[in-house]
Amino acid sequence: MQVRHGLRVAVVLLSVALVGCGSTERRGDASATFPPIKATYDLTGRLSARHGNDALSATFRWHHDRDSDELELASPLGQTLAQLSGDLNGVTLRTADGRIESAADWQTLTLRGLGWPLPVTGLSYWVQGVPRESAPYVVEAGNAGAAAVLRQDGWTVAYNAFTSDRDGTQRPSRMTMSYADVELRLVIDAWQ
Description:
CATH superfamily: Lipoprotein localisation LolA/LolB/LppX
Largest sheet: 12 strands, mixed
Distance between the termini: 36 Å
CATH class: Mainly Beta
Strand content: over 45%
Structural class: mainly beta
Shape: globular
Helix content: 10-25%
CATH topology: outer membrane lipoprotein receptor (LolB), chain A
């Protein structure tokens, strides 16, 4: 039963990786600046998640390529907990016990796995330190002008630290995201 709760949390964590497109309405601190959006990147890092009384700590590997994502979530000891892949044709979750869940989109998959739909279209932008395109947002700038707090799609994203990616652009390295009774903490160890 504990594994099932961990997998549900894994679905929350892994399913927040879709891309949106369009124009953005900006509100809040006009002095905030955003780095350029990357269409393709690879991330490795660590995360912790809390949903109500359920909690999970894990490492992750994420390959994002414009219209597709491949994610792997592993235990701190390296055991694969779940793999997620998705593109414009649908999303699939493979668990360590061999179970496969598929859906047309991330919202449907999280509704099935969690019992409620999770707003999932922002994380591929938020990990870059930018708001999701095509949705209004509120931003508060930090000392160096980068976003310190971003509010979008019902989520609050607090940027705690930044590092340079391979192009020398400042990207988030530690962030905390909260939505209702969900809290995600990400530490990004490597940007590629």
